[in-house]
Design goal:
alpha/beta; about 30% helix
Length: about 350
């Protein structure tokens, strides 16, 4: 059984790091890597070779691998190159791209989408979305601090007192909570919004103020995800966000609804009345953004407000994000590979959720 690590074309990360070799070999799996796959994340071919992992060409990898792993899905013309009956692990986001499962069905390949791992306690160690969101939330605060023209903590000096930065976080999921924790460590005054009642205790435990909007839809059956809210609720939320945003220096926007356009929370009117020099980092940019002026993968300035649209800041932490992604994949493989054989038992809820296309 051979596992092949593909080189990414759109990311700085690599899907499996050299340190994973010990656990994979214990499963009866031999590993090969596409030459140069880890260069951008600090793992060159020599690093893999030191762990007994050979670097090969992309064509050789397709011809040899029984399991292939990448972060971004490969193109259709390369899906044809995968061995019949092989297993391909990537992130297909079928909840966002409705036709992806139908398109994959024509290939005689087992396809696992890591972003479909259920967000349950049992699957926590395989939850790629949470791993990457945590890093994005951390990086969002650092990115905001880098663009902000002031400092985070209060400081008393002989020249005068510097007030603390006021940070508002929209959405207290994994990314939002990490943003809160990071901003607090840097000395900011932090408040957070979230539609989920369960988030209140977590926000307060990190020392932030929870701003509650009454009338949120019941989210108890959503598996930890936010749910679509009524127009009336969203209007009340936008009004309260505007009130608080006008007093804030930095806004970290993370609010997303799985499979839907991100809710618009920061309107043009809000931005036009914010303090010049304020910074917004919009992690929901790839699904439309929480901010009216957000452009995905771009930084724009409106009325002196800097708006950074980037849903994948984890890729800027490519060393640690590669390691966490790798760990998530290895933890998944430990439940599907036994004695060098892949067994995709759909009675297992984790496997059933992640297996989006079957070879037969």
């Amino acid at each position: 059984m051979v596992l092949g690590i593909l080189k990414e074309h759109s990311y700085n990360r690599v899907s499996i790091v050299p340190a994973a070799s010990k656990k994979l070999k214990a499963l009866g799996v031999e590993i090969i890597v596409e030459s140069g796959a880890g260069d951008k994340s600090g793992f060159n071919d020599a690093t893999y070779a030191a762990q007994g992992i050979d670097a090969v060409s992309r064509d050789a990898l397709f011809s040899k691998a029984d399991i292939l792993v990448s972060i971004a899905p490969i193109q259709d013309e390369e899906l044809k190159m995968i061995k019949n009956g092989a297993t391909y692990i990537s992130m297909f986001a079928p909840y966002q791209y409705a036709d992806v499962i139908e398109n994959l069905a024509i290939y005689p390949v087992n396809v696992v989408s890591m972003d479909m791992i259920p967000r349950t306690t049992l699957a926590q160690s395989m939850d790629v979305l949470s791993s990457m969101a945590s890093l994005s939330g951390y990086k969002a605060v650092l990115k905001a601090a880098d663009h902000y023209n002031n400092m985070f903590p209060m400081m008393m000096t002989a020249a005068g007192t510097i007030p603390p930065t006021k940070v508002m976080v929209l959405g207290a999921g994994v990314a939002g909570l990490q943003a809160i924790a990071t901003a607090k460590r840097l000395g900011a005054v932090v408040e957070a919004f979230d539609t989920r009642a369960a988030a209140k205790e977590e926000v307060m435990s990190l020392g932030a103020t929870f701003v509650e909007v009454e009338g949120a839809a019941d989210d108890r059956g959503a598996g930890g995800y936010a749910v679509q809210q009524s127009d009336e609720y969203l209007q009340k939320q936008r009004s309260l966000v505007q009130e608080r945003a006008l007093k804030s220096n930095i806004v970290i926007a993370t609010a997303q609804v799985r499979g839907r356009k991100a809710p618009l929370l920061i309107t043009e009117d809000t931005i036009n009345n914010m303090k010049p020099g304020s910074v917004i980092v919009d992690l929901a940019a790839s699904t439309g953004g929480n901010c009216a002026y957000t452009e995905n993968n771009k930084t724009v300035v409106k009325n002196g407000v800097i708006i950074i649209g980037n849903s994948d800041l984890a890729d800027e932490l490519n060393g640690v994000s590669s390691t966490l992604f790798s760990n998530n994949v290895i933890n998944f493989l430990q439940i599907v590979v036994k004695d060098g054989i892949v067994t995709l038992n759909e009675e297992n809820e984790i496997i059933k959720s992640a297996l989006i296309s079957k070879a037969n």
